[in-house]
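Worked Example 4.2. Read the sequence first, then its structure tokens.
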Amino acid sequence: MISKPLLMTYLYLLIYILLSSGVILYNKWVLSPKYFNFPFPITLTMIHMGFSGAVAFFLVRVFKVVSPVKMTFEIYATCVIPISAFFASSLWFGNTAFLHISVAFIQMLKALMPVATFCMAVLCGTDKLRCDVFSNMVLVSIGVVISSYGEIHFNVIGTIYQVTGIIAEALRLVLTQVLLQKKGLTLNPITSLYYIAPCSFVFLFIPWYLLEQPEMEVSQIQFNFWIFFSNALCALALNFSIFLVIGRTGAVTIRVAGVLKDWILIALSTVVFPESTITGLNIVGYAIALCGVVMYNYIKVKDVRASQAPSDGIADRMAKDWKLEKKSSDIYVPNSDNDNDRGSIAGSLSGSDSKVDEEAPLISTSRLSHIGRTQLGSHAV
């Protein structure tokens, strides 16, 4: 017999996978010139930021679902602003890639996420260069190169946009730890939207005014309110589904769900968008890259569990998690799945994993562990 908590956990995982895949396909459909034909990725991202920020404002200030944290100008200027800048950049470049390359190929390129994050973490001093991890990163890179070589509709511009977005996201993840760790600031999903979404909106306004606003003035495209409202609503729902998943599972389960979601998304994209052709070389390259990612995950989980005493029970582990969370500085920025999926196994690694048990075994709790925030700290507003 499957217990009710376990059943609810699987239900949350299913909702997360469906929403994550659906939002990415929805964004591709909206942006693609062959379908809805709204080729303005910055505008779409600004709609998401504005909607998420407005909802967060009402939840914090009007309905008082959560209380705002003590945010001084110094913390906002030195932490929130730079993190928001890289977050906005990652969404901007990631969404722009939809105009040039297929969803399937984008998911394959996202296997580079742990490589980029690991390199940034080593450069910033939050992680050490290790031979075993480095070899996995080389394996991932080789797999992505093979997958790119096998791409029929390879586009240099789209690939550059996607890789640039990955680098920006890696910098955001590392800066999240480096900058906020010194401040002792911890935000939940609602308060992180409350502070980061408006700031990201402002950063996006500048490139929007210079690049897209002149084109929109002469464009014949009509704004469909219900299309964009439903798109932003799905993105917001995805953020809260990530919160529920983290509260029910550990980082390992989320990573496994991310792998499953990536394969489902690649398969669905070829059905929804027939022009997205997958070759055998694509699959072989992605499989090689995925092996490197899985091995990297295994090393991280092994390190975490080796740091714990064998006699530690669940209560002791939860107590440790609580103490570490009190010191944690990770700001929770949910997966950018609404714009570009950051919740996958490739996009959720942050090279700064804490010494916390990665698999709190399906304990019904709403508390976000430090490792949980780090692993899904995307994919995303």
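Now turn to a second chain, presented in exactly the same format:
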Amino acid sequence: MDEAAVREENSVSLMLEDHKTTCWGCGLHLVLESYSPIFKCGWCGAITDQCKTLRKPDSTWFSWWRCVRDRLFVTILIFFMLFVICTGVWAVYPAVFSISKFCGIVHCLLTSVLSIITVSSFCLAAFRSAGAPANIPWGSYPIVEKDGLENYTYCAYCSKPKPPRAHHCRSCRMCVLDMDHHCPFIGNCVGAANHRNLALSGFGIGSAASIVKEIVAALASSALLLSARGLILIYLSFASLSVEIGIVVLLWQQLYWIYEGNTYINQIASHNVAHGEKGWQNLLRFFGCPYSVYRVLLGTGNAGKSQDISSSKLL
């Protein structure tokens, strides 16, 4: 009996020792009731995933190639937009001013505004940080407050905490808040800081393409189609139409995911589908609508709830 009791005591002590672990967020020693590869700290709220395997680091050549590819796409797109704008103005300018001077001035002003919005939005999306997480204290109990790392995970690539809805991009070599995907055409990630710029750029390009199509349709029966300007107008009409179709499809896809409170990465990752509530409040928050608009469109109760959700996601 004494030998059996000693064995039972040893087995219990070994089990308790196997379930002891340390929280990466606050450094506190935790004792789990049962073994779990994924657990959450009761003090700081940090989530530890012991089963997560790291992918093999990219080679220097592969990283260099991705950087060159992104810069090449950005350069080509900038030159393409400038080509469409400049040649479109050159081809349409005589016909518009032949109608009336007032019509020509209005057309030039509208073209300038749409062109500036489109090019500036594209440049902000391409060269602005997609949304780097804020640096917060971690690793030691005295400096980590209660729930200070709520639902944070540890990024082994950046060696620092990763906020909820953030992902590590191996092309940008950083964690990005609300990362949707890495877009090679802007050479940057689509995240919390530049997602809205892409939406505005889509609206600008779509509006400019519609104006170009209307002008081309009005001049379709004109003798200009036999000249160099006419050939350029034909090219611009097909180019604008194809670009607009692609942008409209991407725009509606992004707006749908924003409405659902989701991102592209979370959509394709079946194991990480935890996102916020869907509704119009997500679109209003995305476009930065003021609190008064929340109250008018969503009602007082829902507006307050949406504001709380929005503020909790800001870092």
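Notes for the reader: The first helix runs from residue 2 to 18. The chain has two domains: 16-54+136-165, 60-131+177-269+276-284.
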